Amino acid sequence: MILLGTVLALFLSDATRLRPSSSEPRTETLNDEWTQKHGVLPSIKSIFSFTPSPTNCVKAHRVCSADPQCEALYRGLELCAADAEMSPLGDQEAAECLEGQDALLTKHPSLSSCKCQRGFRKEEQCLRIYWRVRLLPGEEELEISPYDDTQMASRMTSLVAAASLMQLNGENQCLKAAQDCSLYEKCGSLRSEYILACTQQVPGTSRCDQHKCHWALRRFLERVPEEYSLGVLFCPCTNTLCGERRRKTIVPSCSYQDMEGLQPNCLHQQSFCRRDDLCRSRLADFLNNCQPSPLTASGCLKDSAGLCLRAYAGLIGTIMTPSYISNSSADVSLWCNCEGSGNQWQDCLRLQRMFTHNTCLRNSITWMGSPGSLPADTTKPPAPRPSPIVQEDELLSNNHLPEHNNIVVESEEEEELTQTEMEEEDEGGQSDVTPLYSERATVSNLGSPGTGGAASLTAGPSKAILLLLLFLSASLSWG
Question: Which site among 53, 195, 267, 451 is 20 to 30 Å from 212 CA-CA?
Answer without folding.
Answer: 267
